[in-house]
Amino acid sequence: MEVQLTNRQQHILWATVRHYIATAEPVGSKALVEEYDLGVSSATIRNVMGVLEKSGLLYQPHTSAGRVPSDSGYRIYVDQLITPSELLAKEAELTLQQRLHWEDWSLEALLQGAAQILATLSGCISLITMPQTTTASLRHLQLVQIEPGRIMLIVVTDSYETHSKLLDLPPGQEDKLEKDVTDRELQIVSNFLNSHLRGRSLLEIANLDWSQLDREFQRYGEFLKNSVVELSRRSLAPNATQIMVRGVAEVLRQPEFSQLQQVQTLIQLLEEEQDQLWRLIFEEPEVEEPRKPRVTVRIGAENPLEPIRTCTLISSTYRRGSVPVGSVGVLGPTRLDYESAIAVVAAAADYLSETFSYFNP
User: Fold this and answer.
1) Where's the Heat-inducible transcription repressor HrcA C-terminal domain (predicted)?
2) What gap in Å lies between CA 194 and CA 101, rounded to an integer?
């Protein structure tokens, strides 16, 4: 449920999150009065913080303590209250250009260097994947009705691997169509998709601008898009050593990682379960403007992997031309400098996209 905040509530939420990021201590109204020019009394701030707590954006770790941002509070902070620093992004890209020498280095050495710089600039664990230089292409796609309201999507790659997925027709469609009509429509849609997608790499299909496809098939469009993208992503099987990881020791000194069990599960994910992490950081968000930086921010419980459900993962992809081939990201506590972290991830992705064009696939 979307929370609507007044300007005052937004300002106090912003100040609370910012103060907590800086201090790692629960925030009280007195601290906000002293540190920020909010233009209201301590009593007013306490009342507003109480409203924010009832809305689920702040919480008290102890009864007598100040407030701490929740995952939802951080989400509003990231989506509505901050703008990634363009200045820092430019500085980060300049640092990468000055300290990395693609003309003299191997691709692996370049990515290792970029990972170290990213960890230093962000104060987080940096994650950079080796590029996917080859991938399967679509040979054939078929939609087959299994029963009323249910169809199967079958995808065959150029290496003759087959992937399939059962789908439910969009709500309200299944009772309106006779079986033979649905079969004819599915064949037409299959033919249409084959003509547009055959021969494309699955990486390209997974990140295709589907709005370019004919509006004639709009009623099938969204759920077919999601399914084809999912099947495409399933084909991307990374190598176990594919992710460059830097900055672990520094991040684990943060108070959020004081419990040994949490540290052990995080290290196990980074060292032994990279395939799970790879699929997560390679996934791109949908954006309304394709030219905008594609940066994903997953906060706390938004992360599907248990070892990082108390962390924030910020990621983007780097590309060869228009096709994403690798990922760059940072991982840290939810209490991190979001303006800086988002900016440096976007800068690193832009730098690697430009630089990768100089290397042979």
Assistant:
1) 108-342
2) 42
Q: Give the CA-trace dihedral at 249, 250, 256, 258, to 10 degrees.
A: 50
Structural tokens at position 31: 């601290």
pTM of the model: 0.74
CB 26 within 8 A of CB 61: yes
- Nearest alpha-carbon partner for 203 in 169, 167, 233: 233
Quick one: pLDDT band at residue 289, thresholds 50, 70, 90?
very low
Fill in the DSSP letter of residue 67.
Answer: B
Domains by residue range for the chain, with CATH: 7-81 (1.10.10.10), 86-133+239-356 (3.30.450.40), 138-234 (3.30.390.60)
Q: Which of 291, 313, 310, 293 is nearest to 301 (CA)?
A: 310
> In this predicted structure, what is the pLDDT of residue 240?
39
Contact 183, 192 (CB under 8 A): no
**What 3-state DSSP class applies to 33?**
helix
Which strand (E) or helix (H) includes residue 357?
none
Q: Kindly tell me if the per-residue pLDDT of 130 is higher than 90.
A: no
pLDDT value at residue 314:
96
Cβ-based burial of 19 (10 A; exposed 0-12, middle 13-18, buried ≥19): buried
pLDDT of residue 146: 85
d(CA 6, CA 308): 32
Chain CA centroid to CA 54, Å: 28
Angle in degrees, 0-180, between the axes of helices 274-282 and 260-272, rounded to the nearest 10: 80
Tell me how many degrees the CA angle 41-26-297 measures, rounded to the nearest 5: 105
